Amino acid sequence: MDIAIPRGTHANRIKYPPVKFYRFALNVWNGGIDEHELDGHKIRIYDLAKTIADCFKFRNRIGIDAAREALKVAVTEKGITGQSGDKMGSNLET
Is residue 87 scored above 70 in pLDDT? Predict the structure, then answer.
């Protein structure tokens, strides 16, 4: 499981499931979030553009092949548009 946390905060260690923490500046951590309800609980998940941008930002940790595959799936299955691509690029700049 991968979890984003604000830079400078402490994450408690848990034994299960295995968790990788990714730290972000607060303004970046707060950006690109969609809220969904699941079994009566509100959950926050990064949108597609932020997710793809983060895949490329962390390509040295997850591998360039994973980042490329994420972009390929976004284009072929999710039908991203040029506007979405622009949003991904602006996420990379932050």
Answer: no
2-6 vs 20-24, strand pairing mode: parallel
User: What residue spans of 1-94 are helical by DSSP H?
Assistant: 26-30, 48-57, 59-62, 64-76, 82-93
Provide the residue ranges of all domains of the chain, joining segments of one domain with +.
Answer: 47-94
Which pair of tokens denotes residue 37?
């309800």
- Rounded to whole angstroms, how far apart are CA atoms 14 and 8? 19
Neighbours of 77 (CB within 10 A): 8
pTM of the model as a whole: 0.67
The CA radius of gyration of the chain, in Å to the nearest whole number, is 14
Q: Structure tokens of 60?
A: 């040295």
Strands 33-38 and 41-46: antiparallel
In this structure, are residues 20 and 1 in contact, taking their beta carbons and an 8 Å threshold?
yes
Angle between helices 48-57 and 82-93 (to 10 degrees): 50
